[in-house]
C-alpha cells in the first residue's frame, strides 16, 4: 500500500486544512511502513494561478514547516514537486494519452475558468494531467480525496488504463480513493454554508495555524451563531449551519463524536459553548504553532528537509518514469 496526497502552496494553512487533511496524514504515518506515505507541496500546480515568485517560494517553506510542526516526520516522504523533475516529465508523456473531451468535462476547470475560458491559462485546463502524473509516478495505491476531487482521481484511472492498453504494458497502478469518514468538512466562521478557505478575504472566517492564542479565542468568540441553545441531538442542527460547524470543530479537535458534544452542552447557549471551544482549540493548536515558529526561525533547515524528501521521492519515481519513457519509445 502506498498513499500519496498533495496541497497547493498558495498561502497559510488553516484549521480546515488541519482537521480535514493534515491530522489524517499524521495518523496514517503510524499505520504504514516508513516511506509508504508521500506528501507533497504542489508548487507546480500553483503556477496555474496568479503568483508572485517571492511569495510562492516563501509559501513553500512556510507550508512545509507547518506540516512538520503538525507531526509529519521521517516516517513519510515530504517534498515539493519542483524538486522532482519526473512530475513534469511524466505529465508531458501523459498529455499524449489524456483526451480533450475528458478534460473539458472536469467541473473544476469549468468553475475556475468561468466565462473567460479563452483567457484562462493552459495549465489550468491540463491541471488534471499533472495530477495524474503526481499519482501514477509513485505507483500510488490509495489517494486521500474529498468529494470534490473524486472526478480527478477517476480521470487518473482513465489515463492509466488507456496508457497501459495503448502501449501493451502493465505499468501504472490504478489508484483507489481513500475517503475518510472521520475527516470533517470545516466551514467558514462567518458563513456556515461556505467551506473554510485561505482565499476568503475575511481573516475572521478562518483560524490560521499561525494565529496566537488570543486571536484564536477572539475569532471563535465572534464566530457567527444563532440565539438558540444547543439541542441534545446533532441531527437537530441540520438547518443551523453555523452551530453545526462549531460543534463539528469541537468534536474533531477532541477526537469525539458530534453527538457526544451536543449531549454535554445540551440546553446551553453559545455563551457557554464558545469559551470551552476556544480553550480546546488553543490547547490543541498552541503546541503546533510553537513548533512552527521555531521551524521558521531556520528556514534553511526546512529547505534542507525538503531536499532530502525530494531525493527519496526521486528514487521511488525513477523506475516508473524510465519504464514510461521506454514504453513510448523515448528510451532505447
Summed up:
The protein has 332 residues and is mainly alpha-helical. Helices cover 54% and strands 7% of the residues. Helix 10 (241-254) packs across helix 11.
Contiguous uncertain segments of 5+ residues: none
Helix percentage: 40-55%
Supply the helix-strand structural class: mainly alpha
Order of helices and strands: EHEHHEHHHHEHEHHHHH
Question: How would you describe what is shown here?
Answer:
This protein has about 325 residues and is mainly alpha-helical. It contains 13 helices and 5 strands. It has a 3-stranded parallel sheet with strand order 1-2-3. The protein has a two-stranded parallel ribbon with strand order 4-5. Strand 4, helix 8 and strand 5 (about 175-180) form a beta-alpha-beta unit. Helix 3 (about 55-70) crosses helix 12 (about 270-295), helix 9 runs antiparallel to helix 12 (about 270-295) and helix 10 (about 240-255) packs across helix 12.
Amino acid at each position: 500500500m502506498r498513499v500519496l496526497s498533495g496541497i497547493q502552496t498558495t498561502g497559510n494553512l488553516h484549521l480546515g486544512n488541519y482537521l480535514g487533511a493534515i491530522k489524517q496524514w499524521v495518523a496514517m504515518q503510524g499505520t504504514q511502513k516508513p516511506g509508504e506515505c508521500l506528501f507533497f507541496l504542489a508548487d507546480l500546480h500553483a503556477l496555474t494561478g496568479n503568483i508572485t515568485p517571492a511569495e510562492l517560494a516563501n509559501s513553500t517553506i512556510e507550508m512545509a514547516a507547518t506540516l512538520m510542526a503538525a507531526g509529519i516526520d521521517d516516517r513519510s516522504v515530504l517534498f515539493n514537486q519542483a524538486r522532482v523533475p519526473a512530475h513534469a516529465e511524466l505529465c508531458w508523456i501523459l498529455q499524449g494519452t489524456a483526451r480533450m473531451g475528458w478534460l473539458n468535462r472536469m467541473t473544476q476547470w469549468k468553475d475556475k475558468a468561468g466565462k473567460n475560458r479563452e483567457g484562462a491559462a493552459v495549465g489550468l485546463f491540463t491541471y488534471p494531467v499533472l495530477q495524474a502524473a503526481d499519482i501514477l509516478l509513485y505507483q500510488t495505491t490509495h489517494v486521500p480525496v474529498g468529494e470534490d476531487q473524486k472526478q480527478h482521481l477517476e480521470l487518473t484511472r482513465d489515463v492509466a488504463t488507456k496508457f497501459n492498453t495503448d502501449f501493451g504494458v502493465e505499468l501504472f497502478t490504478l489508484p483507489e480513493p481513500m475517503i475518510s469518514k472521520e475527516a470533517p468538512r470545516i466551514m467558514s466562521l462567518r458563513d456556515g454554508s461556505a467551506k473554510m478557505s485561505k482565499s476568503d478575504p475575511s481573516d475572521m472566517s478562518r483560524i490560521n495555524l499561525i494565529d496566537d492564542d488570543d486571536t484564536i479565542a477572539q475569532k471563535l468568540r465572534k464566530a457567527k451563531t444563532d440565539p438558540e441553545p444547543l439541542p441534545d441531538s446533532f441531527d437537530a442542527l441540520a438547518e443551523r449551519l453555523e452551530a453545526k460547524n462549531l460543534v463539528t470543530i469541537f468534536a474533531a479537535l477532541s477526537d469525539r463524536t458530534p453527538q457526544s458534544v451536543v449531549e454535554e452542552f445540551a440546553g446551553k447557549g453559545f455563551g457557554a459553548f464558545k469559551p470551552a471551544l476556544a480553550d480546546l482549540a488553543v490547547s490543541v493548536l498552541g503546541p503546533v504553532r510553537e513548533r512552527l515558529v521555531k521551524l521558521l526561525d531556520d528556514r534553511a533547515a526546512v529547505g534542507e528537509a525538503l531536499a532530502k524528501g525530494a531525493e527519496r521521492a526521486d528514487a521511488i519515481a525513477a523506475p516508473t518514469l524510465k519504464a514510461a519513457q521506454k514504453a513510448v519509445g523515448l528510451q532505447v
